[in-house]
Every structure is written in structure tokens, then in C-alpha cells.
């Protein structure tokens, strides 16, 4: 892949970044992951799910998913070198292909959300969608508390969710609470 310096920026992309070969290759990789996810969605997607099914091509996600994915791919190489199967948390996951794409890299991704429809549909997807060598699981957020012990997770990511949470500062503190010392936090907001 060619120049990925745009992914080193603070989450901002120029329109020209979307034309770079490295970005297009990464996007095609994610499209293939989403295509596989959507191909089996009749087995787990309920009519109650209110968010777009084609998450990759919605809103600013055409940049956000590749941005987070590239960073997590780079971070994963460090864990692989140390023989560690890292644990990631997807805060406000919804029901998308993305945690499954990360599991294919080796991440153990726990999706979290406040929506019982997400819990039901994602739990069904976990029984249907391939996820090796990693794994995908789900835990419901209750009482504004992430369902993890202090320092339980290696990485927390949150994609275009914080801006929808009133008093999001508490959510940021929760993300910090569940991270191990030296852990990683990746968050993008749509403003």
C-alpha cells in the first residue's frame, strides 16, 4: 500500500485522501467484509433495527471505519508479536460488520449498546457470521456504566456515538476506567 499518512492525522481527512491507492485498497477490504456480513443478514437482522444496514457507505463512515481499522491493524501487530489476544470494546456498536472485520484480524471485540434490538440482532449475528481468529461478543450498557471491570480492556473504540450522548463526559470517563494502563482509545465524532 502507498501513503497512509492521512491515517496519522487526528482523524481528519481531505477529499483527496479518499482517492489515494492505500485508502481505496483498505476500503475494498472493508467492503468485502461488509458484503459477507450483509449476505447473511436475513438470518439475524430484525425489522426493528432502525439504523442503515450498509453502515460502511453512510455518513462519514466511509472515512471513520477505515481510520479505526488501520489503527487497530497496526496495534494488533504489536500484540501478535507478544503472543497476546487483545480485547477491544466497541462503545455504541449497533449491528454492523465492523467488529467481525476486527475479529478477523485477531481482536476479541465486545460490542456494547443501550438498545435491546442491538443486543438481540447482534447476538444472533454472532452465531452466524465468521469471526476467527478473534471473537465477537455483546454486553448491554446499563445505568450509563460500561459492563467491564476497571482496567479489563486493551482498547476501546467509539465511532460517531459520543456526540449523541447527553453529558458524554461520563462516557469518556467510563472508557478510560475500563482501559488497562497503557491501553488505547480510538474515538471519532461527527460534528
Give structural notes.
The chain is an alpha/beta fold. It is built from 5 helices and 5 strands, in the order H-H-E-H-E-H-E-E-H-E. A 5-stranded parallel β-sheet has the order 3-2-1-4-5. Helix 3 (98-105) links the parallel strand 1 (87-91) and strand 2. Helix 1 (21-39) crosses helix 2 (61-81). It is globular and about 45 Å long. The two termini are 30 Å apart.
The tally of strands reads 5
Radius of gyration: 16 Å
Sheet-strand content, in percent, reads 15-25%
Q: What is the molecular shape? A: globular
Helix content range: 25-40%
Major sheet strand order: 3-2-1-4-5
Structural class: alpha/beta
Write the element-wise H/E pattern from the N-terminal end onward: HHEHEHEEHE
Low-pLDDT residue spans = none
Nearest-integer average pLDDT: 92
Largest sheet: 5 strands, parallel
Helical run tally: 5
Amino acid at each position: 500500500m502507498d501513503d497512509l499518512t492521512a491515517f496519522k492525522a487526528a482523524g481528519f481527512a481531505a477529499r483527496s485522501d479518499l482517492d489515494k491507492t492505500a485508502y481505496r485498497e483498505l476500503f475494498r477490504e472493508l467492503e468485502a467484509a461488509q458484503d459477507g456480513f450483509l449476505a447473511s443478514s436475513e438470518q439475524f437482522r430484525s425489522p426493528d433495527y432502525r439504523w442503515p444496514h450498509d453502515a460502511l457507505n453512510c455518513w462519514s463512515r466511509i472515512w471513520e471505519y477505515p481510520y479505526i481499522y488501520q489503527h487497530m491493524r497496526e496495534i494488533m501487530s504489536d500484540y501478535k508479536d507478544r503472543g497476546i489476544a487483545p480485547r477491544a470494546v466497541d462503545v455504541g456498536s449497533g449491528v454492523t460488520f465492523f467488529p467481525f472485520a476486527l475479529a478477523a484480524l485477531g481482536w476479541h471485540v465486545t460490542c456494547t449498546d443501550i438498545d435491546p434490538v442491538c443486543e438481540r440482532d447482534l447476538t444472533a449475528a454472532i452465531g452466524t457470521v465468521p469471526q476467527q481468529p478473534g471473537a465477537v461478543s455483546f454486553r448491554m450498557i446499563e445505568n450509563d456504566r460500561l459492563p467491564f471491570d476497571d482496567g479489563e480492556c486493551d482498547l476501546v473504540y467509539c465511532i460517531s456515538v459520543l456526540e449523541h450522548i447527553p453529558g458524554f463526559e461520563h462516557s469518556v470517563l467510563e472508557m478510560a476506567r475500563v482501559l488497562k494502563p497503557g491501553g488505547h482509545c480510538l474515538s471519532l465524532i461527527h460534528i
